[in-house]
Amino acid sequence: MGALGLVAAFGHVSARRDDRMLITPAIDLARATEDTLLEIPLDASALPANAPGEAWIHLAVYQARPDVHAVARAIPESAFAAGAVVSRSIPPLHGQGAMLGEAVPVHDDARLMRSAEIAERAARTLGDADALVLRGNGAVTTGGSPGHAVARMWLLDTTCRLHLAARQAGAIRALTAEEITAWRAAAPPLLDRLWAHLRRPDGA
């Protein structure tokens, strides 16, 4: 995510592992390795040393969504901009954007997710979507694997930028319910291909 410009000094990725999660520590993601990963119980009442302070949002999503097996937390600038002008949700304007959900909800609270209570509220706003814009605080995406969660973060950045551009151009024409359903049904292999592309060092 660092190479893609989705995080700077802050950002983390996690994966569900039975009743625990593995999460990158509170360091630059480029320095995170398998040996630095932290393991935290999903019902933790406190975070271990060196855990990201916002690990609470990962825990809250896993507790609320048994179908989610990975979470990415990033700060794309486009999410800051879209969250500042959209009050409720961002509809998909292109097929790949539908892989984020029927719409991307916007959580109207710019505070850091540094408590279980604040994180649980954000998880409720996420609902059954696969992406969430945190007004003034970046974004969260989910997936069946860390690669899918990161691919969705890239798609969220694209979706936010397209939405902002379309608002400036005129009336927005969002995808229909049938189009969204069709794209979501096709999502798993497409996310695999996108992740394989994004993780290549040359980006080609």
From TrEMBL:
A GO biological-process term: pentose catabolic process
Ribosomal protein listed as a keyword: no
Record keywords: Lyase, Metal-binding
A Pfam match: Aldolase_II
GO CC terms: cytosol
Stretches assigned to coiled coil: none
Lineage top rank: taxon: Bacteria
Class II aldolase/adducin N-terminal domain: residues covered: 1-164
GO molecular function: aldehyde-lyase activity; metal ion binding
PANTHER family named among the record's database cross-references: 3-OXO-TETRONATE 4-PHOSPHATE DECARBOXYLASE-RELATED, FUCULOSE PHOSPHATE ALDOLASE
Listed name of the protein: Decarboxylase
